Amino acid sequence: MTALTLPAPAKLNRMLHITGRRDDGYHELQTLFQFLDHGDTLTFQVREDNQVTLSPSLSGVVDEDNLIVRAARLLQPYSQRPLGADIQLQKRLPMGGGLGGGSSDAATTLLALDRLWGLELGLERLAELGLQLGADVPVFVRGRAAWAEGIGERLTPVSLDTPWFVVIHPGIEVSTPRVFGAPQLTRNTPPISMARALQEGPEAWRNDCEPVVRQLYPEVNDALGWLSGLAPTLLTGTGACVFCRLTSEDEASSILGRVRSGWTAFMAHGCNTSPLHQALGLF
Ligand code: C5P
C-alpha cells in the first residue's frame, strides 16, 4: 500500500469545565469529547525521498509550521528509510472554530503515515507524540468519545447519546490563547467525577469559556443567542462554533434551512468511535 484517503473528523466539547491553571500556563480541564461524521479529508501518497509536501497550502500558515507537516516530521525518525509523503487536504473545518480541525488533521497524519510507512507504533505511542503538537491531538489519535482531564490528554472512553447536531460558524476565528489568557475567565470550577458529569446529562452541561467568548466576540454571542432560541445551545471548545443537539434529522434540517445568511452551518451525527478509526478498520 502506498496511498490512503482518510477522514479527519470534527469534535465537539459536549461540556467543558476549567478547574485550574498549571505553572506552565496551560489550564486543567474536565471535558467530554465526541466526534462528528463531518470533517476534513486527507490523501497521502508515499515518497521515497524524505520530502513532505502539503497542497493546497493553508493561507497564513507556513507549510513547515502546519500541524500536518509537523506530524509527519515527528514520525520520520522512526523509519529506517528516507520516507516522505505528498499530502492533499480537503478542508471543511474552519480554523479557530473549536471543532479541533488542525488537531484532527495532525492525528489523521500520524495514523496514516504510521500505517503507510509500516511503523506500527500503536495508538498509545502515537497519542504521546500527538500531545507534543497540541492538547487536543491525543483524543483524535485514540478515536473514542472520552471524558478528558489534565489539559485534555487524560482520557477515559465513554458512551454518549448520539443525536443530530447543527453547528454554526459565525464567520470569525477565535484565538484560543486569547480566551485562555483572559483575566475574567472562570478557572476554579470544582472538579466533579466522571460518573456525576454523565449522570447530570446534556441539560446540565455547560462550557466555562462561554461567558468570556461572548464578551470578546460579539459575533459568537449573536450566534449563541439566535440558536438558543430554537434549541439548547453550547459553545464548543473556545469557539467560534456553537452547536445544538436534536433528536431527529428532520428537526436538524429545519434549523439548518433557517440559518442566517453570512453564517456557515452544517448538520452532522454524533459518533462514539471516530470515523477515522472506522475507515482504518481499527474498531
Ligand atoms: O495545545 P493547543 O496548541 O491546542 O493550545 C493552544 C493554546 O491554548 C495554548 O497555548 C494555551 O494558551 C491554551 N490552552 C490552555 N489550556 C489547555 C489547552 C490550551 O491554556 N488545556
UniProtKB/TrEMBL annotation:
Record: residues binding ATP: 94-104
Annotated family: Belongs to the GHMP kinase family. IspE subfamily.
A GO MF term: 4-(cytidine 5'-diphospho)-2-C-methyl-D-erythritol kinase activity
Domain GHMP kinase C-terminal: 203-262
Reactions the enzyme catalyzes: 4-CDP-2-C-methyl-D-erythritol + ATP = 4-CDP-2-C-methyl-D-erythritol 2-phosphate + ADP + H(+)
Protein's pathway: Isoprenoid biosynthesis; isopentenyl diphosphate biosynthesis via DXP pathway; isopentenyl diphosphate from 1-deoxy-D-xylulose 5-phosphate: step 3/6
Annotated catalytic residues: 11, 136
Transmembrane segment boundaries: none
EC id: 2.7.1.148
Group of enzyme by EC: transferase
HAMAP family: IspE (MF_00061)
Domain of life: Bacteria
Signal peptide: none
Record keywords: ATP-binding, Isoprene biosynthesis, Kinase, Nucleotide-binding, Transferase
One Pfam assignment: GHMP_kinases_N
Positions of the GHMP kinase N-terminal domain: 66-143
Name of the protein: 4-diphosphocytidyl-2-C-methyl-D-erythritol kinase
Function: Catalyzes the phosphorylation of the position 2 hydroxy group of 4-diphosphocytidyl-2C-methyl-D-erythritol.
